């Protein structure tokens, strides 16, 4: 059963990774860049500040940073170093079937050694779910926008050949869970008292 699931997962990954073009290579590398999204995060915080009182917005910021910090730390230093599952880019046979983004001539991006769970998926979903929980009562269309953003970031990681689908699913579930927990604590403590 496990071998069958591994085969399906590898087939999905190879299928995603093989649909390449110079433009898609550039686009997926850009989407996967953590720092390129800072203006987007800033816009989301501005929306929170515009839609809520200053105290609510400040407390949401504190809880949001705490949630992202915990999600990032546990994904990158907890799960990866506990499960020690090699990324597909470091898999001895699968790695030969994948294409990797060429950062410089003959220098290909393959990510760190371990991949479960995806830090990008974890962080994308903790951010998306925190802001969805906060903004959906005020901005109706925010949910599809944030879910699309989180999913396209996750897709980029498979396109680049550095994560299996289960790395992504695990990260998305973990990030969503942390976001729901932190937003629940925020609602029960801050929204009732501030």
From TrEMBL:
Pfam families, A to Z: PAP2
Chain segments annotated as coiled-coil in the UniProt record: none
Organism placement in taxonomy: Bacteria, Pseudomonadati, Bacteroidota, Flavobacteriia, Flavobacteriales
Entry protein name: Phosphatase PAP2 family protein
All copies of domain Phosphatidic acid phosphatase type 2/haloperoxidase, residue ranges: 60-183
Domain of life: Bacteria
Keywords assigned: Membrane, Transmembrane, Transmembrane helix
Record bears the keyword Nucleotide-binding: no
Database matches in SUPFAM superfamilies: Acid phosphatase/Vanadium-dependent haloperoxidase
Keyword tRNA-binding part of the UniProt annotation: no
UniProt xrefs under PANTHER family: AT30094P, SPHINGOSINE-1-PHOSPHATE PHOSPHOHYDROLASE
TM spans (from-to): 27-50, 57-79, 113-132, 144-162, 168-186
């Amino acid at each position: 059963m496990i071998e069958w699931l591994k085969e399906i997962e590898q087939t999905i990954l190879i299928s995603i990774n093989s649909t390449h073009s110079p433009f898609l290579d550039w686009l997926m590398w850009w989407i996967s860049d953590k720092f390129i999204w800072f203006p987007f995060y800033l816009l989301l915080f501005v929306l929170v500040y515009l839609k809520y009182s200053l105290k609510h917005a400040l407390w949401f910021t504190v809880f949001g940073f705490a949630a992202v910090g915990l999600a990032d730390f546990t994904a990158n230093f907890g799960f990866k170093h506990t499960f020690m599952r090699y990324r597909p880019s470091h898999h001895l046979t699968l790695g030969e079937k994948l294409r990797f983004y060429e950062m410089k001539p003959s220098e290909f991006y393959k990510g760190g050694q371990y991949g479960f769970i995806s830090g990008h998926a974890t962080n994308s979903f903790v951010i998306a779910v925190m802001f969805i929980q906060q903004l959906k009562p005020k901005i109706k269309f925010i949910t599809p926008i944030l879910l699309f953003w989180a999913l396209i970031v996750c897709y980029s990681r498979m396109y680049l050949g550095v994560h299996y689908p289960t790395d992504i699913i695990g990260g998305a579930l973990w990030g969503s869970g942390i976001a729901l927990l932190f937003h629940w604590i925020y609602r029960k403590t801050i929204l009732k008292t501030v």
